[in-house]
Amino acid sequence: MREVLQLLQDGEFHSGEALGALLGVSRAAVWKRLEHIEAAFGLTIHRVRGRGYRLASPLSLLECEVIASASREAGWCAEVLEVVDSTNAEVLRRLAAGAPAPLLILAEKQDGGRGRRGRTWISPFGENLYYSLGLRLEGGAFSLDGLSLTVGLAVLRSLREAGLAEVGLKWPNDLLVAGRKIAGVLLELSGDPADACQVVIGIGVNVNMLPGPNIAIDQPWLSLRECSGQLVDRTAMALALGRWLKHYLDLHERGGFAALREEWEACHLWQGQEVSLLAGPQRIDGVVLGVDHLGALRLNVAGQERQFSGGELSLRLRDDS
User: Is 116 a catalytic residue?
Assistant: First the structure.
């Protein structure tokens, strides 16, 4: 099937003869096979008599061998999957079964992608980056404090490398452009952080997804394609993300988040802004002072500085409805 999608990904018409040759079937049987591809991957394929078949919208498929080769140079094992429930879940399963680490899993589509606070991460086939890197840590030597913020810097640099100069960070795990989300980070942990554990760094980037009736997202969002007006090479984006992620993980391993704190604050969109911090039913209003050396949020609350950290916190601008 992948060979067929590689042919169709340009969004142009391709003859039934060409597709039949790839599928190993007659021209008459081509449409049934393409219907199966539509159902399996949630794609729409148009058929026009005398012209052939084409995808409703062009794709940029991930180049598996290119990504695997670049990952080997970084010392990572890597695999690109067609469809998976969640790249984070797949990495955790493989690490638990004894797979070598660092382990990088990407997918063309997720059936059960997830974000922070139990949210679903919409993951259509061939549109965005669904990217998870698993690390196996021993003896508590690698600090997990502020790690998600460090990863945010790597995502930010890769997006700016792709030409998105206006992207910035929102504490703790989001990347925004003009108030709309373009990427997010989700860290998941298994084991004892003080002894031996596995941590999965999950990254989702909206690359080529465009608004449509099948895209139901409960917050403002946009994609690189929407910003640039053209299809973005997802493989190039994955390679840039891998380079920057390795760079920042090396810095974090040597100096912890404290060594990156000033750089992170310089990229934080809400420095000095009036915000509301939501923790379940509790709401705390304050002004963002920055973050501390462990990545906790520093707020001026009624004239006093307070620090906040935790995975279930939500930060909003005071005038954000």
Answer: yes
246 noted as active-site residue: no
Give the list of residues 6+ apart from residue 79 with CB closer than 8 angstroms, or none: 64, 68, 104, 105, 106
Beta carbons of 5 and 40 less than 8 angstroms apart: no
Structure tokens at 136: 């196996």
Give yes or no: residues 90 and 235 share one domain: yes
Classified as helix, coil or strand, 41 is helix
Considering the domain architecture, whether residues 164 and 203 belong to the same structural domain is answered as yes
> Could you tell me the maximum CA-CA distance found in the chain, to the nearest angstrom?
76
Active site residue 243: no
The per-residue pLDDT for range 237-264, each reduced to its tens digit, is: 999 999 999 999 999 999 999 999 999 9
**C-alpha of 25 from chain center:** 37
pLDDT on residue 26: 84
Catalytic residue among 54, 94, 109, 116: 116
The verdict on 208 and 308 lying in the same domain is: no
**Among the options 94, 114, 181, 246, which is catalytic?**
181
